[in-house]
Amino acid sequence: MSAYVGCLHIALDLAARGVPVLPLSRDKRPVANCRACRENACGGRPVMKTPGPCRCVRPCHGWAAATTDPETLTSGAWAWAWRQAGSVGYHPGAAGLTVVDLDSSEAVAWAHSALPATRAVSSTRGQHWIYLGAMASHNAVRPGVDLKSSMAYARWLGPGTGTMVRLPDAVRALLAREETTPARGRVVSSVPGPTTFNRDVAGGCRHNETFISEGLARGLALIAAKRESGAGGQTFGVARFLAAQHAHCPGPCVLGPVREQLVAAAVAVGVPERYAERAVARGFADVGAAA
Predict the structure, then answer these.
(1) How far, rounded to the nearest angstrom, does the alpha carbon of residue 23 sit from its chain's CA centroid?
(2) Per-residue model confidence as pLDDT tens digits over 58-95
(3) What does the DSSP assignment read for 34-60?
(4) pTM assigned to the model
(5) Helix 231-244, helix 273-287: angle, nearest 10
């Protein structure tokens, strides 16, 4: 059986069980977006956190392209992706699941001592423990442990053994602790910390401070949510949207502090600083808002 037929067969079987699936390339990543959707230029798929106009028939946008529709999975538009696929991915959150990705023997030993037993699947370096129930995804909640559920994908490694149990509070607590403590291994960056936005930095702007601050806060939250993938594209999209709000201001709108916070947010989730700066600059340049 060829890899193409084998992956598609697995995908169709999972889809029939209500698990949204997508092809993964041989490097275990989703296939790249088509040219029209590069860096989220299309606005994103409707099932993503930021709805957009994308109706691409190809499997663009990673986890957001996962589907249970057999006609889509067997379509000619997806055939090219299955031919280069090395494995099958799935969107745990959409299937009502959470995968605790244990990436080392030490992490597996910790799970045995700290978490209730559930369905376990062997991985290359450890195990996937699968629980019933969805939650937010987050990487590195502790050494060698990632949480994959909403807005994330996991690689299908087989049915595993054991009985799935409900998502325990002990797993949810891992995310709560991570969100209230400084991130470990933060990317080294020269980007300054957050700057308080006020009217003094945007004297020619037609918007009030509340409008600008709330829009910026929503944009920063969207970038922060992209810890699994797509943070660079999301940063570009947020920058372009925020810039568009100032396209008709009498100006000048001095938005340097806004740009700095967008770059800092992207760097915080792993985007290289140079790439983050370029994404923000392109977003503002597309609209022509004053920097």
Answers:
(1) 17
(2) 898 888 889 999 999 999 999 989 998 999 999 999 99
(3) PGGGGGGTT---TTSSS------SS--
(4) 0.62
(5) 30
